[in-house]
Write a structure and sequence with these properties.
The structure is a homodimer of 303-residue chains. The first copy, chain A, is built from 12 helices and 8 strands. Chain A is an alpha/beta fold and 303 residues long. Chain A has one domain: TIM Barrel (Alpha-Beta Barrel), CATH 3.20.20.70. In chain A, strands 1-8-7-6-5-4-3-2 form an 8-stranded parallel β-sheet. In chain A, helix 2 crosses helix 3, helix 2 packs antiparallel against helix 11 and helix 8 packs parallel to helix 9. Chain A is globular and about 50 Å long. The model of chain A has no long low-confidence stretch (mean pLDDT 94). Chains A and B meet through helix 8, helix 9, helix 10 and helix 12 of A and helix 8, helix 9, helix 10 and helix 12 of B. Chains A, B: InterPro entries: Aldolase_TIM, HMGL, PYR_CT.
Chain lengths: 303, 303
């Protein structure tokens, strides 16, 4: 029999990991309204933006304005991505509850994405993490390409463990393991997570699956069985995959919610509000969102 | 650790369960060519059509012509759906290797789909099954709405077991349990299958998942862990869902293949040939197929 947790925390990354991969930009005021709607869905964690150079990600150039304008609820953690100390300054100025740093488990992806080798990335992230902690913030870490790299293919578990060791040693609260290009299969998740959980406590690991090959929920199931209770997802499956335009991107919050609630696992999320805020985003983006939930919702309307 | 089979049989239902739910009809000669291509993909089982009244399913009105014109390979089982004795006659005249009957585990769905109560369906199917066997054919059975009914909602395990008992008692070789409207979650699959497998051997049970809510592969994973090795699917996710137009339908053969091969489970299927025959079908249907595999394939081309 499956061994399932009673409760899971869904961390909404749509406003950051979703929007940064959408070609269509949405107005800052709409983004703020959307995040305010997300705050009413029962989510306890929302990653709202990224404090990066707007030259890299023009979709998130309004980071400070968004962070300062949203209505915050005291029981929600509002987080932002920061690539470096300048990003951290922005996030602190905007009074984020949590900041997140990121790097890859694969050398080539790290180089292409951050323009540095893995070993050269550590000295950049270490002060960001430690200054974030000194400022009273919890700091999260994303490890990308844990299950495969678009340039190198296979990524060794040793690389994943090495990067994780370093980041935890700097004081990271939680590491989110990303299947950046959505290639993971359930067996692989079991093998990798089993090794990871020999080394680190399950409470400090989150899984960040993309649904590019349709395996995200099957991968979630394996992680649940291994005791993982933190999962990243993006409402409506927002975001696509930068390496496969047109393909599904982030695991959809609404689809994850469907499966977990059906299995009797508590998430705190409210279905009606989730769908309502996904519809709002569809209007503002001027396109349909790819999640299965939104597909079935649309077919109800057209019936 | 997961307990996984070494080998799985994928039963392709696209030409029947797929095409019958597509509005767009394709020419008989194209259908024949497509099935001939499917025979080159490594599949060992193809359900090619349904011998039903063409008034009900005009898409499959060419059943006899298709069955008589395809090039058959000796190591592939070519099957067809038959609703009644007249259908069986057609299937026997066309020399099908296997025939399949169908009914629902839910009273209302059975009534709407077959126009008979469950108890009135038995006397129709019993002679079909027994005459099929007498003619030297193996007979398969589909049980629909095992995990939920579009009219009644929940379907009791007792109903599923009662229908299964009857069908097996008539000499059915294998029962395929259908999540007709794609609502099943992994926990439910575990609960239902655990009861089913107390009663019937796992070798005689197949699972037929639809991906309407994105849970199909997660459901497959649970079934694999319980020892199930027969799975129905349709190439490219062909078929949609008759109760949710626009939504994903059958679990896609190509996505199932991706997951299983990645997990080291043998299927005998050849990826290149699968994609090639899915592309052919896309051309003839004049539309993109919804599987994740085909989505990522399209994005490779447009890159």
């Amino acid at each position: 029999m499956m061994s399932l947790p009673k409760k899971v925390t869904i961390k909404e990354v749509g406003p950051r990991d979703g929007l940064q991969n959408e070609k269509q930009m949405i107005k800052t005021e709409d983004k703020i309204e959307w995040i305010n709607m997300l705050s009413e869905t029962g989510l306890s964690y929302i990653e709202i933006t990224s404090f990066v150079n707007p030259k890299w990600i023009p979709q998130l150039a309004d980071a400070i304005q968004v962070a300062k304008s949203i209505k915050r609820k005291s029981d929600i953690t509002y987080a932002a991505l920061v690539p470096n100390e300048r990003g951290l300054e922005g996030a602190l100025a905007a009074n984020m509850d949590e900041v997140a740093v990121f790097m890859s488990a694969s050398e080539t992806h790290n180089l292409k994405n951050i323009n540095k080798s893995i070993s050269d990335t550590y000295p950049v992230l270490k002060p960001v993490i430690q200054e974030g902690i000194a400022a009273g913030k919890s700091v999260r870490g994303y490890v990308s390409t844990v299950f495969g790299c678009p340039y190198e293919g296979n990524v060794s578990i040793d690389s994943v463990l090495a990067v994780s060791d370093k980041l935890f040693s700097y004081g990271i609260e939680e590491l989110s393991f990303g299947d950046t290009i959505g290639v993971a299969n359930p067996k692989q998740v079991e093998v990798v997570l089993t090794e990871v959980l020999k080394r680190f406590p399950k409470e400090r690991i989150a899984m960040h699956f993309h649904n590019t090959r349709g395996t995200a929920l099957a991968n979630v199931l394996v992680a649940l069985n291994l005791g993982i209770t933190n999962f990243d997802s993006a409402l409506g499956g927002l975001g696509g995959c930068p390496y496969a335009p047109g393909a599904s991107g982030n695991l959809a919050t609404d689809d994850l919610h469907y499966m977990l609630e059906g299995m009797g696992i508590e998430t705190g999320l409210k279905r009606k509000e989730l769908i309502h805020s996904a519809r709002f985003l569809e209007e503002k983006l001027g396109k349909a969102l790819p999640s299965h939930t939104m597909q079935t919702e649309r077919s109800k309307i057209s019936n």
